[in-house]
Every structure is written in C-alpha cells, then in structure tokens.
Sequence to fold (424 residues):
Amino acid sequence: MFYPLPLYVGLRYVRTRSRGFFVSFISWVSMLGVCLGVAALIIVLSVMNGLEAEIRGRMLSLASHATLSADAAHMQSWQSLAERARQVEGVAGVAPFVQTQAMIGRGLQLSAVQIRGVLPGEEPQVSEFGRYLKVGRLDDLTPGSQNVILGAGLAYALQARVGDELTVLVPQVHAEGDAADSDLFEIRPRMQTFTVSGVFEVAVQEHDNVLALVNMEDAAALIGVPGVPSGLRLKFTDIFAAPTAAPRIAEALAGPGVFTVSDWAKENASYFRAVRIEKTMMTLILTLIVAVAAFNIVAALVMVVNEKRTDIAILRTLGVPRRGIVGVFITQGVLIGWIGTLLGVALGLSVALNVETIVPFLERLLGFQMFDADIFYISAVPSEVHAGQVLTIGLVALVLTTCSTIYPALRGAATEPAEALRYE
Fold:
C-alpha cells in the first residue's frame, strides 16, 4: 500500500468516479475558477506594466532621468562639472540645459511655453529626441540661428509651420531706483524673434503642448545670462537609480545645498501614484475570482465529507487518527487548487508573452481595431511580464486554496464512527 496513508486516500478520492455528478462538477468549476483568476491577474498586470513602461518611455524621451540646477555663479565652469559627473559609475550621459517659462506668439495667437535650451551635439546623450522629430533636424539649432523646434500640440495651437516667425516674451523683474534699498519692482518683458525649424510629437501633453527647444546659447541670451546653462541633465544606466544617485552626485560635485535636485519620479509623482493605485485595485478585484473559486473548493469538500462519512468511520475504526482524516481532505483540496494555479500560470504566461501576436489575430478575426492609430497614440497592446508579480500571484492563489481546505478537513475529522455507522 502507498504511504503515507492520508495522501494515498486523498489521491484516490480525487480520481474516484463514484462521486455524485454535482460534486465532481463543483470540483471542476473550482479548478477552472482558480485557473482563470490566476491567468487574468497575470495578463492584466502584464499589460498594465507594458502600458506603464511605454508611457514612461515617452515621458522621459525628452526629459532626463534627473536634473541638477544651480545659479549662474556655480554654473560658470559647467564643462568641468559635466566631465566629473560622467566619471560617476552608473551615469550614461550628461548634458547642459537652459530652461525658462515664457509666452510665445504668432499673430493674435499667444500660448504659455517652456523654453528649453539644448546643445544639439550633447542632447542625444540624455534623450531620444530624434525618434519623435516629425519635421526638421536637431542640428538646425545652431548658436545664433534663433531657430526653434515646437511640440506638435503647441504648433497646432499657434497655427505655426516651418519657416514661420514667432515672438518669445520672457518676463524679467527690475528694481526701481537703488536695487539694494528699493521695495518697488516692475516687470519688463524681454522679447526675441525665433523661426520655426521643426516639429516633434511624443504623444505626451507635458511635452507636445508646452515645450519648445532652442539652442542653449540662444536661450541663455534670452534670459540674460549668455553662455551659462541653468544646470545639468543626467541619464543613468538604471532609471530606477536616479532618485537616490542624483543627490549623491550633486553633493559630490559642489557640496550640499548648491544644486537643486529633481528626478523623473518626483516630477511625475502624481501620474505614477495613480498608476500604482489602479494596479492595486485591479489586483484586488481580480483576486476575488480566485477567492470565489476557493469558496467553491470549500463547498465541494463539504459535500465530499458528507458523502464519505462511512469511509471516514471505517478509517477511524481501523486506527487512523483525526490528523490523518484532516490530511485526506487537505490533500484533495490542495490538489484541486494547485493544479488550477499551475494551469492558470501557464495560461497567463502564454497569453502575456504573446499579446503582440494574439491581439492582431483577434482584430482580424473579429473585424475590429482595439486601438485605432488615428485616435490613440499607442496603437499596439504592450505587455511586460515581471517574474516577481507572477510568483506573488501563484503564491497567493496557493495560500487561498490551501486555507479553503481547513474547515472541511476539520469537519471530516470531527465525524464520530459510531454515529456515522449507526444506519449503515
């Protein structure tokens, strides 16, 4: 005979066909529910990971992983600061920048704009600007050219095309009288004319609707600090290292308190917080599918216990202890839950890893397009499987299904042999 005995009897109960149809049906439904719940969790979270990564990549296409900003006095020797930053392990690129808020207008059209001055030769080190440039070239932003590259949304708002001239106004505060003693200030706009030389489209409002790129020297002259950048933009080999590495680099370059440090996680905190909350809620909702399947396992095992009262009594009279009876029904329930979990993981991974093939096939088969390229910037469904999430989902499903076996097993162990055999 196969030992241990509870495991042998539990496996026999799973395989037996003498059980009523309804009990077997509930067991199969329980297994299917666990399978579908686990698969749905893996697929949905993988697609959400893919969408998050896609949007994060677009958001950081023109933004840096981190920025170090300082006043003009500390940025006079920016070349040496940039060279020292490049020597830090984990830093993939460094580029200077000038950034200011302004108003930009064409005719009667006027819009708020964020002017960013860049060096065309060094900008590719920290961004993927070239991927999203629809018209023009970054090399057109030569010193003194007064050329500007607009975001697609901003160009549309201004009705601006390549070759059009735009007026840029930067407000500056001036003290009246003696600058040291006067409490009176006035705002005098500094104005310059720029020529549209290109248009980019990243499909992120924060870039397309408000950002305009010019040469760094032109931007520095516009705000009145010729040749001096506002700070340094950093790119890291590991994007998630930026929040902790950037402050250390700033302190190593110029000491504490000199640089104002910002990073991608801080600048986009509200967006990523919303995504995290959404993923958490989706996880909780889909986990309910597994929980319902676990309740079905409870129901199936309770019915098995009622059906096997005579078998339990015989086992008890043969000397099987209560814990042995508990082991019999735990074995049966755990086997149902674990098979469902493994099938769910296999199904979820199969779909999640092949979303880019499955979705186009379904679109052709059913004659619809999930993300119309004319409406949505992201026309394909991305997927990104995280091993840690898959492992967590599998473990949670295993724990839920295992816990669901405890009550029926204890109920079976509480069966009194004499009571069960009285009317047999």
